[in-house]
Structures are given as C-alpha cells and as structure tokens.
Amino acid sequence: MASISMRKVSVQFPLLSGAQRSLKNSVLAATTGGRIARDAREQPVISALNDIDLELRVGDRVAVCGHNGSGKSTLLRVLAGIYEPAGGVLDIRGSVGAIFDPALGMDPEASGMENIVLRLRLMGFSRRQIDERIDEIAGFTGLGPFLHMPVRTYSAGMGARLAFAISTSVMPDILILDEGIGAGDASFFEQANARLRRLVDAAGILLLASHSFELLRQFCTRAILLEHGALIASGPLEEVLSFYHERTHGPSAVRRAA
Amino acid sequence: MSITFDNADHSAAPARPPAWRPASAARDIARGAALWRTWLALGWHDVRQRYKRSVLGPLWITLSMGITVAALGLLYARLFAQPIDAYLPFVALGFIVWALVSGVLLDACAVFVAAEGYIRQIALPLSFYVYRMVWRHFIVFAHNLLIFVVVAFVLPVQINGATLLVLPALLLLAANALWVGLMVGMVCTRYRDVPQIVTSVVQVAFFLTPIVWQPGQLVRESWVVDINPFFHLVELVRAPLLGAAPSAMNWSVAALMAVAGSACTFLLFARYRYRIVYWV
Any CB–CB contact under 8 A between A199 and chain B? Predict the structure, then answer.
C-alpha cells in the first residue's frame, strides 16, 4: 500500500554567489580579511521548506498550490527522492514516479529511439523490459520517422511529446507531476490527457503541482497550499483553491479564521 | 475532511541538519554498484555516441592514438637515441595508460555538472555517474590497447608470467579511478575554478611522469619519479605488459593511495553528498 508521511521535514539550499563558487576566494576567505573574504565567507541559506507535516494515503489526489518560489517543486523533489531533507522524518512506501521538466535528461545527439532506451535504462529496466515497452512509447509519440533523427533537430513540441511518452510509460504507486506537463498541439493534448488520466487512475497517490486551477480540478480532490516554504493550508480542493485565490487577489475580508 | 489553516510563525531559524550521513553515503555507493547493468550499458552508449558521426566509430579513438604513438615514438626514439624495438612498445603503453589516467581525472571534473539534467530529474545514486564515467574510460582503454597488440606483433615484446599481473594492476587502477572520480567530481561541482587547476596539473604531470622518457634516465634525481603517484599507477599497468613485474613500491603506493583516498573520499561524501544536488 502506498503512503507518504512527512513530519517536520525541512530543506535548505545554499545560495552560492560567484565568489563562493571559487576555490581561490574561499581559501583567501579562510586566511585573510577584506572584502572578497567577507563575500566568500557569508553563506546565505534559503529555507525552501520549513517543518512540513503531511500524511497521504491511497486514493489521495493532491493539488500542490502556491506562488512561484513557494516550495512546490522542492516538496515534489523531496518526495521523488531527489532532494534529501535537511531535517525531519520522511517515510515513503511504494514506488515513486515523477515527471518534472520533461525536457531535462535527454541526450540531444542521440536519436529519439535511443533516448527512449536511455531513459528506460536509467529507470532501471532491463533490455527485455525495454523491448516490451518501446513500441508502445514510440507509437504514442506519433513522431514516426523523426524518431530516428537526433533529438537536437526536434522542435520544442516534438521534444515534449517524446519526453511525455517516456515518462508516462510506467505506472508507479505514487505519481508526482510538476507543472509544464501539458505539451504539444491540441490533438496531442487530448491524447496526453487520456494517458495521464489512465496513469492517475492507476496510481495510489497523486501529487500535481500547477498554477492552472482547471488542470487541478480535472485530476485532484484535495489540495495543499505552500507559502514561503511553509504549508499554510490543507483540505478539500475547492476550499483551498478559494482560500488561495482570496489570499492572492481577494477582498480585504480575508476569511482567515476557519 | 476539514480545512486546516496554519498561521504559526515559521520565521524562526530551522534546526541545524545532521552534518554526517555515513549510512546514506554507504547506501549510495552500494546502490550505485548494484546498478551495474545500467552503467555498463550507458558507458557503451557514451562511447558509441561520441564517435557516431565518424565512419570508424569507436575505432577512431584507436586510430588517433595510433598516429600519436607512431609519430612521437619514432621521433623521440631518435631524439633520445633509443633502440626502436624497446622504445616503441614502452611509449605506446605509456600513452595508452596515461590516456586512461588523465581521462578519468579530467572527466571527473564534469561527472556531476554534466549530469545535471539527470541528477535533478531522476533519483539515482550519485555514485552511479562515477561508475559510468570510469567504465567509459576503461572501454576507451580497451580500444587503445589494440595498438599495443599490433606493436607487440611487430616488435619483440616479452609475454610471460608477469604479464598476468596486469589484471590485479587494472583492478587497483580502477579502485583509484573510482575515488578520484567521486572526490574530484564533488570538489569541482562545488568550486567551479577547480577544473582549470586539474587541467594544469594533468598537463604538468604528463611531462613529469616517465611516459616519453624512461625512469632510468633520471639517475641522481630519481626521487622525482618515486614521489610521483602517476608514475606508480602507469608503471603498474605498463610493466606487466612489457613482461616485467612492477616493483613492490609501485604496488604499495597504488594500494595505499586506494585505501587512503577511498577513506578520505568516503568522509567527504558522507559530509557533503546530500548537498551535491544543490550545487549542480
């Protein structure tokens, strides 16, 4: 059974300036005073997530809301196992599949077909398992003969089709989708939506981050709201969405006390 | 279900994270090794990819190395007044092993930075990228070794019991390549001016290491050779293929480097592994 339990999870990023990126300046900072030294010694840290508590069980379809920089992607990357929390307890049961920026992690010199193999390899599939899946993926991209051309020759939309087809070819227990997943032209969007729907239905838990209320309403039943790395609201989708809306645009009468 | 609003003050400084994470570091290294099927396949992919547009494919590596070896071998044999029979196999092996050692060192600089797109997208152990990089260079090494095979056919090269020592020597070299890859990769990801330093070091090391000249040529200053770690690594692989056992000093320096280097790297990895993803 899939489940997610986060208790007091926090994540901090070092914010490295040019001077801190330099070994020379860092060594100078350790041995001398002065301006460069001060620049290199001070290490600003961004608290990307603060004391997040979250319990999710099978059947949860969670919209992750918040402004840019509120910590949505960071939270999803923690759940995907990419960021290790700096503090707190994180317990994830079940396989996790995550789709972030689909354009990342492609080899531009390799052909579309080779990129499919490459990505499936990285997901840990064996040669046989790849052979079982590759035709379906290739078919779904609708790229036909272009699949044998290097990816660097693709348009942005073609690249997105390829990435989407690969990323959605596995059915994880916990599905994590970051914004920017709807890609390509209208006809592809239809197909993509149908495929996404199937994936979401098969997943035990869904987390979807997006600014599009329309998209969130289509797939989610619950929502959480992040602000400056803190989880400030959690509950049924519509209630959180209207709270979020009021907080952003809303009248002075903010219903803060519930 | 009811909606909950949390208006607590989160501005307080968060608790300091645990600095040392040896268990997750060890797990990363073990999980990376367990993915051997994946990095074996991807290492091959990397090599094929690099030479895809050339007719010869990966054999292009062999050809360009062969030209270097032939040209420089003949030239320096004259300059140093060395008999070509002994000198050419020596130079060929020197260049081939040096290509492996320097290749790993230079590629280590970009091992994480170049994989940024993957690191921020797929939850793979970070050690995976190091295994893949080292394996890639061993594949190239195997291609280059063809040159030595050709040379050994034409010129008299001794093949005897000592030749077999090349296998443990390569293992020891691989062990050193892995920790160097991980450590240099980490440092270069954090400090972006280190790759230039590494490039300079590799350049100077090439001239200071007996590759085109023979260790015996430095008589009074032989310590220059003895304190050079690159010499011991190169000699370890070169000597057996020329039919001579490497010296006890070669073995012990290489083994000591592998143990001490791995230990230091592990400490560094346990301390900074979880931050690498923020540095790339």
Answer: no
